[in-house]
Input
Amino acid sequence: MIDHQAGIFRENTAHHIFLEFSFLEFSVRGAPALLPGRPLALAPVADGEQVIGFGRGLMAGLRSPGSSPPPALADFSAVAGRGKSAPASQRDLFIWLHGEARDELFARALDWRDALSGVARLEAEEHGFRFRDSRDLTGFVDGSANPKEDARLSAALVQAGPYAGGSFVLAQRWIHDLAGFGALAVADQERVIGRTKADSIELTGDAMPPDSHVSRTDIKRGGEAVKIYRRSSPVGRVADAGLYFLAFSADPNRFRWLLESMYGLAEDGLSDQLLGHSQPVTGSFFYTPPPSVLLDAFGDVAAP
Output
């Protein structure tokens, strides 16, 4: 099996913490040669996992073996669709903590904040949770079409070459209009999503609108299905409840194709109905290297 960050694939965990950091004076001093926090990068999380990803600019500045960014890694650019848009808020470092013990995840998050405090600022922090039987806050089962078993690895991980075992990441915070969506009849909600609400069965034939969420994200390129491996989680307070959309792919172009399809930028010009009920407020691309490359990026202290 290809060496990779195992936490990407541990499913059905109850609690999540998503941290996004920006590095201080990045434009003046550039990225540090090494990152602080090596003990944290090495230490397992009690009854949990951690996944660490780098933005393009940070990875390019590191002076560790193998730390040069994959050529395909880019900063997230805002998507200007037909009446809707997806904003960009590119960060430098991404840490995803998830597991069964919320206190242990919180303790690790505090440790990362302290370890990075001299070089980076915590720009975004989201706390996620398992909602009922792994449903989104809209009440629909989340991730029904995710690849299973070995297909997950093929979808998420670079399979060969110098970046084998790495994965490209799309991270977005979405806010749902739960009141507006909830006011729709269940049959209308199902036409927005493209699945039945109770048991997540995909609609078929004339019952499936071409602008449903399933229709806009079940796409092909060159005759092959465009597959990503999503690890999204419900997040937020009552006032801003929504979704932290987290997805992994062996090819970052898949994210672009899916976003174009959702935002009316594909050839048919149709936009995803879901955008009338939920909107992203952040957007970043990251790369999660395999463990050996990851650990090389961390030293005992950050270089000046």
